[in-house]
Amino acid sequence: MLSPARSASPSGPDSPRDPHRDGGADTPARAARDPRRAAGLFGLLTVLAALAFPLAPVEQPEATYSWTAADGAAAIPLLPYQPVELTAQTSCTTAREAPPGQVLLSTVPVRADAAAQPLQGLRIAASDGAVRVESAGIDLGAVGLPGGDCTLSVVSDPGSTSVLVDGVPALVREGDVRPDVAGAFSDVRSGVELRLTTDSRFETTISPLKAAIGVAGGLALLGMVVALGRIDRSRRVRLLPPDWWRPRPVDGVVAAVLAVWWAIGPITVDDGYIAGIVRSTGSNGFVGNAYRWLNAPEAPFSWFYDLYHLWSLVSSSTPWMRLPSTVLGLLCWWLLSRLVLPRLGRFVGRPRVPWIAALAFATWWVPFGLGLRPEPWVAVGALAVFLAVERTVATTRVLPLAVGLVLAGATTALTPGGLLAFTPFLAAARPLLALLRARRDLHPLPLLAVLVAAPASAVFLMVPDQSLAAMLESVRVRTAVGGGQPWFEEPDRYRRLLEWTFQGAIGRRAAVLGTLLAAAGVLWSLRRTNTGIAAGPARRLVVGLLLSLATLTFAPTKWTQHFGDLAGYGAAVLVLGAAAWSAAPLRSRPRAFVAGLGVTTVVAAIVVAGYNLWPYQGAWFTPTFSTLAPRVADIPVATIVLVAGGGVVTVLLARWAWQRSGGVPESPLPRLLPAPAPVFAVVLVAVLALQVLTVVRVAVTHRDSYTLASDTVSTLGGRPCGLQERLSVEPDPAAGVLPVAGGSAAGTLPVDVGGRLVPGVAVAGRSATPWFTLDPRQRTQALPVVVTTSGTLQPGDGLFLEFGDAAGVRERRRITPRLPLDDVRELAPPGAETVRLAVDAPDAGRALATLPRAPRLTPMTELLPPGSSALLDWPVAFLFPCLTPEPLWLGTAPLPQWRVGPPLDDTETHISYQPEYGGPFVAPRLLVTERRMPTYLAGDPLRDAGQLYRWVPTAPLARPEPVVDRRTVSGWQRIGHPRVPGIDPVG
């Protein structure tokens, strides 16, 4: 497929021509006739377009809000929190008549929910014949009011904030002290006005000029590629191997595994995060981070989000959104099996190699390849770049080199980890430089233009609708807020790989550690044994893999999920490792055989010491054996592997030492002794089976509840609403309090449960409630007995549920809340008829517990019909495809009615509601009181599968309508910085 072509001859048809032969300077007509000049010219045009593209103007909306005190309290939750400019006015008469301390204007609620994080707004208050002004937490001072009628104004922009009396400055504070704005609030009902312009710098669309530059750059790139094809026309070789299209049995097996994994495989930790961003793109007008960083653009790494957004317009269901990664898996397998393997040597002709390749591919793709994250895209892109470089080396053509550079740039534009796509060029630097020096038919300057233009074309993907200034500002915000780790903390990634969490799950360990073992074997074997491996391509592949691991150092986060970028490379190196560590090349070198077996034993033991864990919903219904390292007869498999393998290695070393001490020639190793490659292949098969079959078991045994498999089945059956289909909500906890079994429950205390007061008791002293009659559904364990605790139980506090029957107490269970506010759910034992609470605690207890209840449930799809808008927290956003994410548009945030959150013990959603993280929903949260509604999962009512919250405004709020204009701004225009509270300095 990639056979080398004959070298170029300076006297051949592609040899340089004398520039004076045609007489005169270059012209477009001559350039069109000469493909070498055309390639250089088109390359130069591509570079110029790439430079101009970020600087080109963009279209930006400008939203202006106006408010008067007569409108009453108003919600104007800004995002970013400060306006571009603000003007507030009040008449001196209004200020004089107001009692001292009365608030004339505040841009944050005077009385906000205590549970909400505060913002620092503008506050104008009356003060004994003067007006005191505060902004952004800074007291600007007091301004005396002159006699007679006058107008007092506060004008704030990024440069300064001024207090003026009839237009004359009375107080001026230089620097950026713009206030945060959540709304407009006043204790008076007239004489106060507010006007502000929102900061919509990120909500831009491509302008006609920018689009024209992009089209010109794309056409120039295409022209450059065509010209390079004409230059290389004498070096044509077969592009695809014979019978590349013919299906094979191994292809069917790989496709079946991918299809099964698509239907049942767990989600990744970031599927919800990306789903929220993707589904918000249409309403937001750009790809912004809808959960933190002030919704700053994901540029320059966001072009695959745009593709996912278009894909989601067809359906947002979980199976549909996971389909692209499955298709990418098929493409990765096709590249590996049809193009990469034939390049690696004659050993691939052995019948077992395709099956080894399938195992290697599945070893990487199952733990890393499914979901919305960019790793599948990077894996395919990197593998395609490797093939382009290998084709360049094999054919001495320049066109594949340019195509490879284009693909490397596009892969880098996916995610910072995509930088690894350039490593094949470094691994093949020597033959590539030799090739370029040998191509005397190409002038240096046009060749340089081509080599720069190809990767520079990625700029068209990086900022399609953002300006350069907006992209740089988004990078500044992300850097200031943080959330990443510096390059020198890269060892954290490998420490996490060895943790007993889903970060170090057994499948991830098998892929990464197994590939490193294979890489070591390949590099060792290339000079020492006859393995049938093509030394050049294999060396470049392994060096590229190791360089790719090094490039992960520059990724801002250190999660083990990023190893998935190497899935294509890793699978190919595993196949090479199988050849390098097989018996045939090692039999002639017994010491190497023993060393390889020893290293394999250690790596295999570390792999099987991992847990079979997945994040979030993937961990639901996990069998007990998956929460521990694999065991046989209660002995860890890792121990068995280490002892067995170590024993064999010890015996072989003793045998070698004995023979050497006696001067006896080293005898051949027993032929029944397994080589390192088949030993580790058994480990890979076992790990793969454990991962897949465990998920299959969960899918079968819990098909009446929510799993990714049941979600797929429901979607194919016309019910695409995901987890929402299987959740019921308890709107009124007070309605479910159980009836007393004779008499009444006296002396109860009210307990606030989601805004509803439920009768309860104090966890103090020794007492017991009356007996309550269990609901019929509780007796059959269809519903749990629920007790909500409020406050923290102190050491020594005893809170118990006692179940009874006609004979008395049948069973006593201690209640152990996980959180200060928690729903404790217990299934009644068989035969129980009644239940009561018993308290055994010190008298100074500070916790409360509700009386036992049987929850009265409403299906979530009835409470929030499909299409309802809700604020979807990122851990669960992927699983509620029928709910519409609240939009973030025109520099403002919404005031949602509903929030869908993860289980109570998941605190990772706080970033969206805290200003120091640039949370987009900080300002709306200030305007509401949050009321929790517990949810119950069909088939597993004890599980806290998520929470539903109603957002109730703290007071009636008007919603002013903005006046929106659109203007064209240059690519470098920047007006101040959006300020992140607690991070960016004030003033």
Explain briefly what this protein structure is.
The chain has 987 residues and is an alpha+beta fold. It contains 28 helices and 33 strands. The strands form 7 sheets. Strands 1, 3, 8, 9, 10, 12, 13 and 33 form an 8-stranded antiparallel β-sheet that branches. Strands 27-16-31-32-30-28-29 form a 7-stranded mixed β-sheet. The chain has a 5-stranded antiparallel β-sheet with strand order 17-18-26-21-24, with no helix packed on it.
Features:
single chain, 987 residues, alpha+beta, Jelly Rolls, 8-stranded antiparallel β-sheet, 7-stranded mixed β-sheet, 28 helices, 33 strands, flat, disordered N terminus
